[in-house]
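**User:**
Make up any protein.

**Assistant:**
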Amino acid sequence: MGESSSELSAQVGVAIRRRRKALERTMQDVAQEAGLSQPFLSQIERGLALPSMRSLDRIAHALGTSAVSLLSSGQTGGHADVVRVTERVGLVQDELDPGSNASALTPANRQLRAIEFTGGWREFQPYSVHHNDEFVLILAGEYVADVDGTHYELGPGDAVSYAGGIPHRYRIVGAGPHRFLAAIVGDEFDVVARGDQLASLSTPASRAINRSCGDLSN
């Protein structure tokens, strides 16, 4: 069965607290490095709040680990996890427009991470870069994908994939509904670079950002 939001919050909180104590670090120290308030980190560790994917990545970085490692529960084979449509865990995406949402299609203890996004942006947002390869399948509506400066028009049934480290972003076109599936293996969709941070990457898009700059921000 799929995990409820409360179960996922509890799992994440326990993992963060266990890792922090193993490193003998204070909550204040970790919160400060992750750019979060201590009360909020306290709520996360107690399972009372579920951090956004961006915040979880910051916490993982502060603890010298990855979001995947924090989410891993150590479950092994012998069973299948079924995530019913009524049991999907809604994810907080800091960059989504109002009215858009994202929900997890795979449980947090799996290396394969699949997320369904509905809605999207009318205008391109700053580029994102992930650690590992990403696969996207358009389920409904029209999208334009900008992958390292090259634009691809995508419609229902079209799929696109690219290697980790490649800057990418999407925008919606025309009337809705708009919906797509994104999947990554061994990654928690954590953004490793965004906007002008891409200047450190040797790709055409990052070099263009490095030259023109300033208009893409976190």
Observations:
- The longest strand covers residues 112-118.
- The radius of gyration is 18 Å.
